[in-house]
């Protein structure tokens, strides 16, 4: 069983703008409680700015603190859920890849470091001064989305682009990221991550990915080492383990079924692989999570 993936259409009113959703965060939580009160993934790109509130945001088994000035970015397929200690406020918007990239034919979402690589952190913390500045633009985006003014779509697209550019500038100033500019190595890494996402169930060896990229295994390892200081095998293992954790926690399948889904030869081998990397068996991991 795969993890429930929410579709953008589940959130949309019948508005002229397809594949885009904008709301205040407090209203979003109230309106969509039945959709978002359990771990889930999305088929869209999501950006949230918090102006008030506290709690935790878990993204793919990493916990992040929610507080004023926190911005979170989610790509399609990432699993997450919210847990609030105090009432949150802020803004949320999300959109499909096509919504953005059909308007900017020469500029893709992967140009932004928070959407580029799985190695880059999915959050950003703004200073009080920057929070004030950015929240004005989120507020303007929300207002424009609610109204039906002339050239509404053009203004919305420009506001989203402005927000992404401003957030990228802060992100690249404060966080060690894996892509600044468009070097051949970073392009290979991007292609590799895409290929791993598609093939990791059945293809678990670097040789396959090197062949797909028309380079040697040795060169592929050099690229991964130089860009993110890991090996190709590590990247593949990390993706398999992430999916294993998602399925162990979020699916109702038994562990042997999960081993089959991940195309391991048998459960004993899967369990040994999981324990060697995580330090506990799949059963121990499931019990820990539901303790």
From TrEMBL:
Any GO molecular function: sequence-specific DNA binding
Top-rank taxon, per record: Bacteria
Keyword entries, A-Z: DNA-binding, Transcription, Transcription regulation
Pfam family of the protein (one): HTH_18
Lineage: Bacteria, Pseudomonadati, Bacteroidota, Flavobacteriia, Flavobacteriales
Name the record gives this protein: AraC-like DNA-binding protein
Residues covered by the HTH araC/xylS-type domain: 190-288
